User: Which sequence fits this backbone?
């Protein structure tokens, strides 16, 4: 990790790591956690986080600083993880990652960023620091600006090609890419191209 | 001695020129600022002398404003969010603008109304964090937060008190509570009893309390200590921390966030 993330002051407040009994306070605590997670993931371009707070990304693995403040020796317990992720699920900030959705989706390194675990109690969450709708719009804008309308683009071109290195959706997780393309497709702005095996290989955006 | 030839010979001269020009600019700007000071003094004297007239005679005040505007001083705009405080004495409240304390009383109103709105906003935003209890010091920190684009310069405690007194008229739940150590603003209908007060005071000093600390320092019974702490957690005044080293629940004042 090159630059370091600037943690908010509440991160150094020890009770932030203990579940608060007052409901109103708890809600604001969860909102603060949710913001922190989103901002942290956006800063480090993290797509996937598991229900124990483990983060893996293409740029290597992260230490546990997000959920474990070593300076004040406080960390989140499982009960709080459940609360926080439920809160984020309810607010559509994360979504449970389902590998099946990608089985029909042909893109290089499909398994990137996903913590492979034999332990079935581990759940992976996709983190939406931008909503799928926003990603869809960004892709659409780029296609229009670069005169790629009506031409077929491979999924690789859309997210992995070096020519788009400066675009925000460079390296976009395939799960989010598929979600975004489906949104475009349901708006009749995109047509998904499948190969003989029914795998999505490309897309035509109109 | 090496004499530089060609273009290089101008090198030194350029330095000289820039030195002289910066001197000239400095002189001019000093002169101008002196003149401006003088003019402002005169204007203030004028405003002092004709204070009542300006206030009471709309024609006169309009002309006076015109005069201010024509020399590039906007008496209305300048006084809303700019405030020059030259003294650290919080009791003498300095007005925002050189002559606003002489004439523009309506502007004062506007300033404090604006401030009131901001105070209410912050109290609302933070009430889930702190149970509707915020110290004036904390509030000033929010208002002076450099990341806040609408921050107001040089606010002092007295400004807050004036605004709260205004808000109080509209919403009696807003009030200033003095806990012996500092002034707190409560934005919900909150009554603090003396036990709760004492805890807030001690939290200001040592950040958090435990049942043990209360028993040792105040000679309270375990039951009483626990009960007061529970009631304060229930109301959102304190946050609990169960990961403290001494195995006791620590109770924190959220103003330490």
Assistant:
């Amino acid at each position: 990790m090159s630059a370091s993330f600037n943690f908010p002051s509440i991160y150094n407040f020890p009770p932030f790591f203990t579940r608060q009994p007052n409901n109103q306070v708890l809600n604001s605590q969860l909102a603060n956690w949710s913001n922190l997670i989103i901002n942290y993931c956006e800063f480090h371009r993290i797509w996937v986080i598991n229900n124990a707070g483990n983060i893996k990304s293409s740029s290597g693995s992260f230490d546990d600083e997000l959920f474990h403040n070593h300076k004040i020796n406080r960390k989140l317990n499982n009960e709080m993880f459940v609360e926080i992720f439920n809160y984020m699920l309810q607010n559509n900030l994360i979504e449970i990652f389902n590998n099946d959705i990608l089985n029909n989706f042909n893109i290089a390194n499909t398994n990137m960023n996903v913590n492979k675990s034999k332990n079935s109690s581990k759940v992976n969450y996709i983190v939406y620091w931008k909503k799928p709708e926003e990603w869809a719009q960004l892709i659409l804008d780029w296609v229009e600006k670069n005169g790629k309308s009506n031409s077929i683009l491979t999924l690789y071109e859309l997210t992995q090609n070096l020519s788009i290195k400066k675009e925000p959706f460079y390296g976009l997780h395939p799960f989010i890419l598929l979600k975004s393309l489906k949104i475009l497709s349901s708006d009749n702005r995109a047509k998904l191209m499948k190969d003989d095996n029914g795998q999505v290989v490309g897309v035509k955006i109109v | 001695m090496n004499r530089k030839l060609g273009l290089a010979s101008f090198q030194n001269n350029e330095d000289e020129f820039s030195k002289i020009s910066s001197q000239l600019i400095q002189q001019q700007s000093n002169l101008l600022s002196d003149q401006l000071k003088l003019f402002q003094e005169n204007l203030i004297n004028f405003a002092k002398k004709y204070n009542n007239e300006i206030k009471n005679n709309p024609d006169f005040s309009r002309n006076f404003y015109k005069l201010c505007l024509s020399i590039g001083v906007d008496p209305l705009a300048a006084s809303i969010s700019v405030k020059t405080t030259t003294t650290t004495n919080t009791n003498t409240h300095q007005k925002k603008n050189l002559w606003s304390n002489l004439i523009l009383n309506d502007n004062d109103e506007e300033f404090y109304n604006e401030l009131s709105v901001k105070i209410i906003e912050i109290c609302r935003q933070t009430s889930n964090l702190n149970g509707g209890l915020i110290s004036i010091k904390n509030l000033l920190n929010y208002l002076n937060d450099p990341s806040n684009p609408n921050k107001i310069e040089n606010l002092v405690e007295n400004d807050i008190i004036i605004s709260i007194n205004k808000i109080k008229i509209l919403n009696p739940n807003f009030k200033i509570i003095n806990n012996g150590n500092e002034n707190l603003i409560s934005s919900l209908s909150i009554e603090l009893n003396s036990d709760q007060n004492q805890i807030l005071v001690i939290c200001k000093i040592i950040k958090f309390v435990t049942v043990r600390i209360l028993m040792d320092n105040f000679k309270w019974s375990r039951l009483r200590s626990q009960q007061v702490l529970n009631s304060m957690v229930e109301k959102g005044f304190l946050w609990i921390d169960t990961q403290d080293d001494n195995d006791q629940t620590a109770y924190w004042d959220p103003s330490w966030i």
Notes: Chain B has three domains: 21-70, 106-186, 194-256. The CA atoms of residues 170 and 217 of chain B lie 41 Å apart. Chain B touches chain A through 20 residues (CB under 8 Å). DSSP finds ten helices and six strands in chain B.
